[in-house]
Amino acid sequence: MAQVLHWLHGLAQAGAIPAGPAGRGAGVAAPDPDRAQAPGVQHAAAVAPRLDEVSGFEAFPRPVAGPVMTGEEHDLFWRFTKMKPPVFYGTESEDAYEFIIDCHERLHKMGAVDKYGVEFVTFQFLGDAKLWWRAYVECRPAGSPPLTWVQFYSVFLDKYVPRTLRDRRKDEFATIGQGNSSVAVYESRFHSLSRYALQLLPTEGERIRRFVKRLNTTSIVGSLTCSHWCFISGDSGACPYR
Prior knowledge:
By secondary structure, this protein is mostly helical.
């Protein structure tokens, strides 16, 4: 009823019906605007963000995907996706370093690292990684230039491969050994951790020396494959199985 009275009052103010008791609207009292709605209650439309107001627009996140793709960018992105790049969720179980290296290898093959690398790689973000990236872009000052690949690479590693993790992996590499695991498992672990201690492996010879030093010599000969012999000796002809 209050809304009907408010509507009639609006018509009277616009001249559509007389507002006084002598006209057709006689007997219709002008409603009190303050009583047309319960105190403290606002219509949703009155408080919803408006795109034509700065304060309202700021309530929405700025787009993070960049401008619409050009023909060249679309073709390169199609080629990039055909290479089946990995996706990244930002979980602790994922190898963030391997993800960024895999993507870089594909981009390098296309010659697109510097021009489109950041956009293509961040398109592979899902879940928490996508939320982090959106928040990072939101926090950048308005009008900031796009990140270069070097800048993005540094930001990504600081987030998902922080210095504390790198130092921990470096310490693990310093003490790694075959133990009771197979040579194949030891080799995989050795190569994975060596990425965090490249300063300890200035040459391929030093890498081989460290690998051999931590082998379990009681079972070494029977478990080595041709690839292991080649890695240890640096000479494919040294494999006794050939």
